[in-house]
Amino acid sequence: MSSQPSTNAAAPARKSAPSASRGPSVPPASRRGGILLHPVFWLTLVFSGLMIAAPLHGNNVALREDLVLVAVAIILASNLNLMIGYTGYVNFGHIVFYGLGGYVGLYLATVRHWNLVLAALAAGVSVSLLALLFGVGILRLRGAYFALATIGVLVAVHSFVSNFDPFGRSEGMYVSFDAYAPLGGPMRALWITYFLVIAVMALSMILSLAIKTSKFGLGLFAIREDEGAAVVLGINARVFKAIIYSVSAFLPAVAGTLMFYKNGMIDPSIAFEYMLSLEGIVMLMLGGQGTVVGAALGGGLYERLRSYLLTSPRLSNFHLVIAGGLLLLVVLFAPGGLIGWLYRLAPRAQRVIE
Amino acid sequence: MDTILDIKGIESGYGEVRVLWGISLQVKPGKLTTIIGANGAGKTTTLRTVMGSVRPWKGKVVLNGEDITKLSPHSRANRGLVLVPEGRQLFADMTVEENLEMGAYSRRARKGQQQNLERVYDTFPRLKERRKQQSSTLSGGEQQMLAMGRGLMQEPLVLMIDELSLGLSPLLAQQLFLSLKALRKQGLTIVLVEQNVHLALALSDYTYVLAEGRVEMEGPSREVAGKDEVRRAYLGL
Amino acid sequence: MSALLEVMGVSLRFGGLLAVSDVSFSIAHGEILGLIGPNGAGKTTLFNIVNGVYKVDKGKILFEGTDITNRPPNDVVHLGLSRTHQIVKPLNGMTVLENVTVGACFGRDYMGLKPARNAAMEVLERVGLADRAETAARSLTIAGKKRLEVARALAARPKLLLLDEVLAGLNPTEITQMIQIVRSIRDSGISVFMIEHVMQAIMNLSDRIVVLSFGQKLAEGLPEEVSRDPQVIEAYLGDPDIAGKLLENA
After folding, report:
1. CATH architecture label of A20-352
2. Which of B13, B17, B44 is the closest to A3 by Cβ?
3. Do B87 and A2 touch (CB under 8 A)?
4. ipTM field
């Protein structure tokens, strides 16, 4: 020890989460009233209602197909938000829950002829439990090492599935037409799965809101701000992290089942799209990590941008360049994303929204 | 000249944290002035502020009649203000001789480089023996000698040393102190921050006792040595 | 009455270094025990041991008779042991009120969000931060952050509060104010175990003092006794004999 005075000038040690500590501030403790009185809750219901009503009106299948992608983006971003925005742990392998859920659910629904909803729920539960198992191992790691480990999980599961017979190895599984019979045929099945996906989206947002306004959520945010301090304040960080990692797997896994069922097939490359994992992070950062509205906004906007780019003849090759560029811009100049920027312009908005 | 280094009313610190609350010292030429005080009292901060690595919020530093408060550390070094920092900060991969040569890097010191090198080797014969050795392989005491030698290569008007005996065996500390005494006899002005109070008082001409960023007491070392204020500056009661 | 905290023969080695060596002492209910010692003596290490951040190689720690040796920090909070840090750790993205609410939520009483918030406001009143309740923690001054750290620890309703250099970096006015706060904490029945380098303050504030040097307990007793103990004086002022030898040879 030197004879230097002990100073507080040095910043407290931080995890190297990408500016997780510069996200929008957290006001769970200032919010009065339960979740049912929360504006974001009603916003979610209204938004979900619109998502259902819009394509139904005039049987607009094209719109439905666009919107289902938006819903999936929101599901992924919202659940990823639980890890990145709330807890400050950057999960680069988030897509593994979606893909694995798709596999488990599709297997149960088509090979074992389970009811779709049950299959989806079972997928959710089993993937969550697996996440809990993995989580206990990798959540000891911090910062960049944790992020790398999440990629490791993704790669490991991908390899496993590619070699797993019951899941069709590298060829995957197909959904035969008669699998849609219990739902009244393919046409109806597509609509039903659409409504279910919207329901999952609404649940994702409501779950995010419920956690954020709860004591558990407060604990998570404390972990994000300073894990050492959180532990010393009585928060069992190990347990909290494992729980939220597991919880963040549930709804994406359910959604995975529904989506791959709807699309009629699954194989390792489309189940575990690495880019989608990364884009999930972009969506979240773009919209505003740490907020429910931000995750939804980011998911929706980015998905629309993505669809536009992919279908544009000139720009489709630049889709990832633009994604990467956006991520850089957000991280460097607006780490709070769109919502963070809004809150900076109008601080009152934060008290009103979330 | 009465005072070669005049420090007036320095207030400084790190970031938000203020460490020095108005330090004034007058260093007389050719004398060994020591600064003592408990850890956290501001001794190292004082030296660093005088050297310019820490910018003061208030106060002035005057060297040889010139106000150097706004100058960068290396400009101050060029004017003969040399700091041998705590922890030595030697160039680990360079040899003893290379480290010493680095001391004469500034234009001012380069002229007398050969002469000064001889003088340093005279003062520290051990360094001459190990001149081609990598500095990281030297013992603690030898490294301290090398750090001082490098400081001397800069042709200092005022040599400031932060912690001389820290981590050294009593024998080595003794040797180093004897060299210091010899240098003082040659007319070098020395400002010494030292952990061992008894040593500091025995060796120096004038003592400043720092406590909580202020000068608690000052005076000729022989007078300060007997005072209970010294004990109180360290132990609070 | 039995002691609130009993530390018995704790030792901890870091690689080759014996950071804490066979240290024993106890803290009574409602007393302020000061921990002093030269830099590197092992004071913060000892705190980390009592608090559960470090595990001991040897020894036992009893809190109100319960063995808390090697229990993790988040556990001991629930028994009534809180601490502040030398380098403050505010939860920067949150407001002052939220910070303290966290303390109340996960402290000894496991409060729900609403009661925790109310309890937090009370604590903020006590330490004089009530008017900054909605301020972002990161925008407080050093003095504010230190008070926040204390408030957050108090919100857990501890029986024993560990204060690690709570006065470092404060100006004289702020030091006086913080001293008042520490006194009022003790007066409310909470014991305080504090490390401090601002010697005047800790010597005047503490009921008793423990002195650590090179990881060992050097002395223990009343401040007046300890400040005149020759071993303690030597630990701070250095070996008087070296000087003697030097003058001989000179």
Report:
1. Orthogonal Bundle (1.10)
2. B44
3. yes
4. 0.88
